[in-house]
Structure formats: structure tokens, C-alpha cells
Amino acid sequence: MGVQIGVVLGGGNIFRGLNASEQGMDRSSADYMGMIATVMNGVAMQDALEKLGVHTRVMTAIEMHQIAEVYIRRRAIRHLEKNRVVIFAGGTGNPFFTTDTAAALRAMEIQAEVILKATKVDGVYDRDPVHHSDASLYGSLRYIEVLERGLKVMDSAAISLCMDNSLPIVVFNLNKDGNIKKVVEGERIGTVVSTE
Question: In the chain, which stretches have pLDDT less than 70?
């Protein structure tokens, strides 16, 4: 479709650093393990995409030369220009930052037009729709509203980074067939978080 795509994956299905630190593990060690889990997911995603004929590169903020390229901004941009999907793994390479922050940071670095936040729900709600059947879906929000209301779109560092650089975020349901294509084509689905 002529769209350059960078992907940031979490690692929670393998290891969730924050949960481990809450149970007594050193936070830095737990976060590094979480970053390694994102590399594992990145390699799995690369394999799945390449089986479909999609040229893909995994780039990681934590050096693992045998399985992924080290993240270098200019090299990532070059891969995108060659229509390769770039999977950004290893978070930011630093503990105490989530993959949300990594997504916002990488988006700024590659001069992305938008962050597409694919989730399990239709967008951003006023409260958890899994536990509250009467939760209301927002069609649009301003960054400052997300921060002031404590809405769980992305962590506050990621929201602040997007706000400071006017990078819109579209939150949508990954599990509905065709949603990725719809959002890429500009169809209004989910919740848009922006300056307006």
C-alpha cells in the first residue's frame, strides 16, 4: 500500500518486568529481562512475516549481533525506504521505560506520521470496558486530557513525548479483521489522541 511500517512489540507474553519487580525482583534486572522478551517476540514476528513474503528487519537497542541488528537510526530509515518492515525490539535499551516509550521514541526518530496503538479493545474508554459494561468509548482526546484523567492509553512518558512533538496516536482493536488496513487508509476507527 506504499506505507512504511515500524513495529514495536511488547514482551509480556514471555516476561513482564514490572510484575517481577513488584514481587521483589530488582527493577533493572526485571526490565532487562522484559527487553530480552521483546527481542524474542521480534524474531518470532520476523519469521511469521517473512513466511508471507514480507521483507523484515529486527533492530534491537540491546546488542545481540547473532539474531538482530543493533538499532541505528539512519539504518532503520534506510530499511524503511527499501520497504522493509522494521521491528524495533529491546525497548529503549534502558530500564524504567516501557515499550510505549520505546514506540514513541522510535516514532520520533524515524519521523513517523502517526503511532498506531493496536490493543484488545476498540479504543480508549472512560473506564475499563472489560469490567464495566457501561464504559464509554472516546472518539478523540487531547494529550493533556489523557494525562489529567490518568487514562491508560500509553504511559505518561510516551504521551508527553508525543504531545511535545505533536505526534498523533490512534488506538484501535487489533483483533477485528481489516482494522489495520482501515486505520492505515485513514478510516476513522478507535480513538485518536492528538493536539485537537
Answer: none
